[in-house]
Amino acid sequence: MHKVLVFTDLHILPEGETLIGLDPAARFSQALAHALDNHGDAARIVITGDLTHNGAPAEYARLRTLLSRCPIPVSLMLGNHDRRAAFSAAFPSMPRTSSGHYQQMHDLKGHRLILLDTLDEDAPDRHSGWLSPGRMRWLDNALLGAGDRLITVFTHHPPIDCGFPAMDRIGLRNRDALTDRLRAHGRTAHIISGHIHRSISGNAGGLPVTIFKSPCHQAPMMLTGNDVHLSIDEPGAYGILLLTPSGVIVHSQDVGLPATRPQSYAPR
């Protein structure tokens, strides 16, 4: 069994700046420390986009410092708050395709992780995602080369609606093209996404989808309304994926709660 840790929607800001009174860098540092203390045996950390809040060089520099001593390999993805040029300058060694998109694949025994770049810097609404034909061709090759490995796909923008009208309007615009390819391949075990800032599960045409919370601010339960920026100070979280011979087990771990000691309720 392999263990993969997942963070999403860090929204790192420059030193001294906050979001709804929270310091995203401090919240991420707390969550990362918790993950390393409890899951130092993980094979990889995947951070699924919105690494920064404004895509500014100072924000990426701060993130680079936060990750500089991480002993586990880290794969970084891009979200709608990121900017490709500034990210490239800060993380020049991060793998990217010949077209300049940050898509990666990593093989563990029996599994292939496929990380997709859904950032569309020309999106008409500024925040929705898109997988261009070139990115889709890269995905086709990654699926073709996977053999009999089980596939876990990572995206920033989830390939499902979440029931929040505001967020559903800025989702992955060509989600059907993605899920059609994954269903046709037949070995996709799970899709992991971010973007929404809540723990949500669902399925995309029969494929299981998990959306993780941010380590910083969360979205309120907003089943009505149109404000994509509404946020609430709730505990942050990160994901723990257990890759087994038969599939993927998904856990979400909250951080920042008061320390407690497990107690047994079994009769004595």
UniProtKB/TrEMBL annotation:
Q: For this UniProt record, give its keywords in alphabetical order, as a comma-separated list.
A: Hydrolase, Iron, Metal-binding
Q: Does the keyword Metal-binding apply?
A: yes
Q: Enumerate the GO terms in the molecular function aspect.
A: cyclic-nucleotide phosphodiesterase activity; metal ion binding
Coiled-coil annotation reads: none
The UniProt transmembrane annotation reads none
Q: Which InterPro entries match?
A: Calcineurin-like_PHP, CNP_phosphodiesterase-III, GpdQ/CpdA-like, Metallo-depent_PP-like
Gene3D superfamilies registered for this protein in UniProt: 3.60.21.10
Domain Calcineurin-like phosphoesterase as annotated: residue spans? 3-198
- Does Metal-binding show up as a keyword for this record? yes
Give one Pfam family, short name only. Answer: Metallophos
Q: Which domain of life is it from?
A: Bacteria
Q: Which family does it belong to?
A: Belongs to the cyclic nucleotide phosphodiesterase class-III family.
PANTHER family in the cross-refs = CYCLIC NUCLEOTIDE PHOSPHODIESTERASE CBUA0032-RELATED (PTHR42988:SF2), PHOSPHOHYDROLASE (PTHR42988)
Q: What name goes with this protein?
A: 3',5'-cyclic AMP phosphodiesterase CpdA
